[in-house]
Amino acid sequence: MKLLEINHLKKSFGDAEVLSDISMEVSEGEVIAVIGPSGSGKSTMLRCATLLETIDAGELKYIGSAVTVEKDGRTEYIGKKELQKIKGTFGLVFQNFNLFPHYTVLKNVIDAPVHVQKRNKEQVIREAKELLKKVGLEDKENEYPSRLSGGQQQRVAIARALAMNPQILFFDEPTSALDPEITAGILKILRSLAEEKMTMIIVTHEIEFARKVADRVIFMDGGVIVEQGSPEEVIDHPRNERTKTFLQKMER
Fold first, then answer.
1. Dihedral sign, CA of 164, 165, 166, 170?
2. pLDDT band at 180, cuts 50/70/90?
3. pLDDT digits (tens, 9 = 90+) for 48-74
């Protein structure tokens, strides 16, 4: 089943075109790694897909439901109520965690399921405690984010995203703010989610991780998808010169 479809997406900021013509599909259970140099449009694509940025042209669909419609040559979004429903199908983990500083770890995880999804609080707390155990933070539920390391905060952010029971998870450079030792722990969690067949789109600069875990690798540069395919095709045997140059730089 296709969970996400992006067709001919375009996005500019002022006169600067950031995304030229992006089309991709994501199927259930698929793990996609998005790689490419800084400024290639990777994060903007993610922000457009997760409705944090509005697109200028093109089409977005989640599980067959259109998020945008073409009207008089313009791209318009569906109504607020329908958008809210679609937002419940995905979760997003940022590179800078975005936790509520005045909430405990547990409250950070349970807040949206209780107040946005209106789910039973006791049930949500039980699930949240299981998720914190899963990410190795069962003893930190009463701590505040300021008392946690960067790696621990990112684990809370992952647990918080999972608490919404999303069908697809987006990660925007989840390890870029972390040192190598802590990065290994976060990548281990992502690997276990991949083994559980969690559908994920991960913008990452961790090429080795992409090679081992992704079903498909997308290489972006200059606001376009230059090349995509299996890790073996894109990372080990790239066809495009831009991909080859980027990977050679990353290996240095």
1. positive
2. confident
3. 999 999 999 999 999 999 999 888 878
Can you give the chain as a three-state secondary structure string?
CEEEEEEEEEEEECCEEEEEEEEEEEECCCEEEEECCCCCCHHHHHHHHCCCCCCCEEEEEECCEECEEEECCEEEECCHHHHHHHHCCEEEECCCCCCCCCCCHHHHHHHHHHHCCCCCHHHHHHHHHHHHHHCCCCCCCCCCHHHCCHHHHHHHHHHHHHHCCCCEEEEECCCCCCCHHHHHHHHHHHHHHHHCCCEEEEECCCHHHHHHHCCEEEEEECCEEEEEECHHHHHHCCCCHHHHHHHHHHHC
Q: Report d(CA 153, CA 157) in Å as an integer.
A: 6
Q: Which two tokens stand for residue 8?
A: 């001919």
How far is the C-alpha of 159 from the C-alpha of 111, rounded, in Å? 12
> Taking CA 120 as the corner, what is the angle to CA 114 and CA 125, rounded to the nearest 5 degrees?
70
163 neighbors 124 (Cβ within 8 angstroms): yes
Q: How many CA atoms lie within 13 A of 20 on its CB side?
A: 8
Taking alpha carbons only, the member of 51, 133, 57 closest to residue 84 is: 51
pTM higher than 0.85, yes or no?
Answer: yes
Place of tokens 């013509």: 21
